[in-house]
Structure formats: C-alpha cells, structure tokens
UniProtKB/TrEMBL annotation:
It comes from Cyprinus carpio. Residues 1-22 form the signal peptide. SMART domains: IG. The keyword Signal applies. Keywords: Signal. Residues 25-123, 126-218, 221-322 form the Immunoglobulin domain. This is Immunoglobulin domain-containing protein.
Length: 353
C-alpha cells in the first residue's frame, strides 16, 4: 500500500510540476525565399531551450548564461539563416529553401517542460493569373480562420490596408476586400497599376501559411462588335484550360456553356436559352465560346467565370450584333437620280419644240 502511494505521488509530480506540455504538430507552409518564425510563447527566466531539425540540434540557450547559440546544421544548410529570440525562445529561419523542409521541435525545460513540434513545407510555385482591366478576381487561400487568427495581405512588400480587416481606408485599395468572411482576397474592377506580386501570411493555432500570387493586368477586348450572320468569338485569354476546374459562360442569368471537371460536364447548354439552339460551340483547348450565324438578339453582356483552387476570375464582355445596311438602298438612290436627270432633259427638249 505504501509503495502504491509513493508511486501515485511520483506520477503527480511528473505530470504536474515537471510534466511535459506536448502540443499537436503545427503545420507551416511557406514560399522559397521567405522568412518564417516558429513561435514559442514567452519563456520564464532560467529556461533551457533546445531546437532540433530532425534529430540534429540547430539552436540552444542555457539557463547558465542566457545567451542563444545557433548551428549550421547538417551540411551547413542553416548557415547564417537562424536567429533564436532570447525573450520568447522563438526560432526564425531566413531565406528559406526546399532543403529546409522537415520536422522541427523545441524542448523547453523550466518549471514545466514544453515540447512543441512544427512540420515545415517549402513551395517554389507562384500562382499566376492574367487579367484584363475591369475584371474581378478572388485569390483563394484554402484556409478557415477564426477571429483571433492573424491575416496579412501584401502587395510586394507593402501591407494592403483592407478596410474590413484593419479599418484603414486607402483610395488606392478601395476595390479590395476579404471575401465572404474568409481570408480570401477579392479585387473588383482591377486596374493596370495593380499588376504585381500578392502575398498572404496567415497564422493560426494549428498552422502557418505563406502563399504568393502574381497578377498581370493588361488591356484587351471587352466589347465584340460584328455584323449580323458573322461569327462571334469570345476568348478566355488562356492557351490551355487544364489548370481550371470550372469554366462557365453566362448571359441574362443563364449558363449557356460550361466545363465542369467535378461534374464531368462539357459543352453548350442551349436548353437553358433557346436563342442559341445549335449555334454555340465551346473550345476544348481554351474554353472560348463561339456563336455562329449571329443574330441581333445575341447582343448583350456575356459573363465568364473561371476557377481553380488558387483563384477565381470573372470577366464581362459586351457583344453588339449590328444589322447590315440594306443592299438595295444605294442602287435605288442612283436610279432616282437617273430618273430625275431624264425628266429634266425631257422637259428641256419639249420646251425647245
């Protein structure tokens, strides 16, 4: 009985005063060249801290002197890239590369022992999208956030002052907003001066995400004008559509053509709009829409919707189908002129008689 009581007290000490607080693995996804900080809450005085990359020690701080030390790691891959914060115990990796992908752990021994683990992935792919002035685009993050989570969007190295995020109103960015209570960035009626690199940094309890997008904004045809019976060609502006999960063409609220990989749909939807029966053609290569044997009733606004996991593009193209001039009008005018001349000559001759 005494042995059991003694064992119980030992267990209480281990799980209490000297217990280990082990968090779940935190996911960290960043871009090549980024700097990322693996955060630890403020440490108490006299803490011993050991950071590891896999099983290799890459940083430490001893309670004896309180001075942080960093190491180059296996193959010197961390040379001049590590910084250990002596106040918080957080580790910063600068100019990160794909060789830094892996598991990082920090062991903090003080009144309570704390063990935290981070799984770091590094990406080198920048999502790119080409737009025309006046288009709208949504940049997707794929992350659900809560009120306490940190979200920062940047244009280059400039923080974008999003009105409904931080309350700052900047005329240059009034067409930018967070989309539908998510960290996704929406840009309406985009301008050419908004061409550039957009970055998002999200920090939640369970993850850190850095993502980068490149937006190119150029001029282009936003109005297509043809004569009746000529074909109407509406382009998506892409060479190949493999990167898109959904492409839709709409007019007057109806979907008239669609490519939907999830639902395995491809082709015109003439059933929804009888005006186009048999005259719509959808390109398998580019997603462009062709209207053959055009009619004046085809005139109107056509809305393009293209989306994938990274972004959603929306564009409006105005179609104007004109009625050609009556072919008989010029000859009729000429005929009337000839008749007028003949009548004048006839009158003149009769007067001479």
């Amino acid at each position: 009985m005494r042995n059991n009581t003694f064992l119980l007290w030992v267990l209480l000490l281990v799980t209490g005063v000297f217990g280990v607080d082990a968090d779940e693995v935190k996911s960290v996804s960043v871009m090549v060249g980024d700097s990322v900080t693996l955060h630890v809450t403020e440490i108490s005085r006299g803490s011993n801290i050991i950071w590891k990359f896999g099983d290799e020690i890459i940083a430490r701080m001893n309670e004896a002197d309180g001075n942080p030390s960093t190491y180059d790691g296996p193959g010197a891959i961390f040379k001049d890239r590590l910084k250990l914060d002596k106040q918080t115990g957080s580790l910063t990796i600068t100019n990160i590369r794909t060789e830094h992908i892996g598991r990082y752990s920090v062991d903090i021994k003080s009144t309570n022992a704390i063990l935290k683990t981070f799984q770091v992935t590094v990406h080198d792919v920048v999502e790119s999208v080409s737009l025309k002035e006046g288009d709208s685009v949504t940049l997707h993050t794929g992350v659900k956030v809560q009120g306490s989570d940190q979200i920062v969007w940047k244009f280059g190295d400039q923080v974008i002052p999003i009105t409904n995020l931080n309350g700052i109103d900047d005329a240059k960015w009034r067409n930018i907003h967070l989309k539908d209570q998510t960290p996704d960035l929406g840009i309406n009626n985009i301008r050419s001066d908004q061409t550039g690199v957009y970055k998002v940094e999200i920090n939640t309890i369970s993850m850190v995400l850095h993502r980068k997008y490149y937006i190119a904004v150029g001029g282009g045809v936003k109005t297509v004008s043809v004569m009746e019976r000529d074909p109407v060609n509406l382009d998506t502006g892409v060479i190949k559509i493999q990167g898109y999960d959904l492409i839709q063409w709409k007019t007057e609220g109806n979907i008239v053509a669609e490519i939907n990989k999830g639902a395995n749909l491809f082709g015109p939807r003439d059933v929804d709009d009888l005006r186009f029966s048999g005259r719509l053609h959808l390109s398998r290569e580019t997603g462009g829409l062709n209207i053959s044997d055009s009619k004046t009733t085809d005139s109107g606004d056509y809305h393009l919707h293209m989306s994938n996991s990274a972004y959603t593009l929306q564009r409006t193209i105005r179609v104007i189908v004109k009625t050609p001039p009556q072919s008989g009008a010029p000859s009729g005018i000429c005929g009337a002129g000839v008749r007028l001349v003949v009548w004048a000559v006839t009158v003149f001759l009769l007067q001479d008689l």
